[in-house]
């Protein structure tokens, strides 16, 4: 039961920090020199709305590294929990088939 509670808490933290990072990254469009900041967006892009999400996330990582690191680590933890629960489910299914 503890593992499920931790899993649900981690999902909440991941979602919250994802939106916080996304919100912070959206401020890249307001920067006057946004073309100098972007890394993956092609130089031919002229509209600020066409900036790649990865560039926005890198900008958010520079502006608020704590929220971005928390998002990254909690996302990895949620993925790890999903793999753990899936393996446990598969083991129970295999035990039922053997009986």
- Alpha carbon gyration radius: 19 Å
In the predicted model, the low-confidence regions spanning at least 5 consecutive residues are: none
- From the spread of the alpha carbons, the general shape counts as elongated
Mean model confidence by pLDDT: 92
- The helix fraction, in percent, is over 70%
Number of strands: 0
Q: Oligomeric state of the chains?
A: single chain
Query: Describe the biggest sheet?
Result: none
Structural category:
mainly alpha
End-to-end CA span:
26 Å
What's the number of helices?
4
Give the helices and strands as they follow along the chain.
HHHH
The amount of beta strand, in percent, is under 5%
Properties at a glance:
single chain; about 100 residues; mainly alpha; 4 helices; about 75% helix
Structure commentary:
The chain has 99 residues and is an all-alpha fold. The chain contains four helices and no strands. The protein has helices at 2-25, 34-37, 53-63, 65-98. Helix 1 (2-25) runs antiparallel to helix 4. The longest helix has 34 residues, at 65-98. The chain is elongated and about 65 Å long. The relative contact order is 0.15. The mean pLDDT is 92.
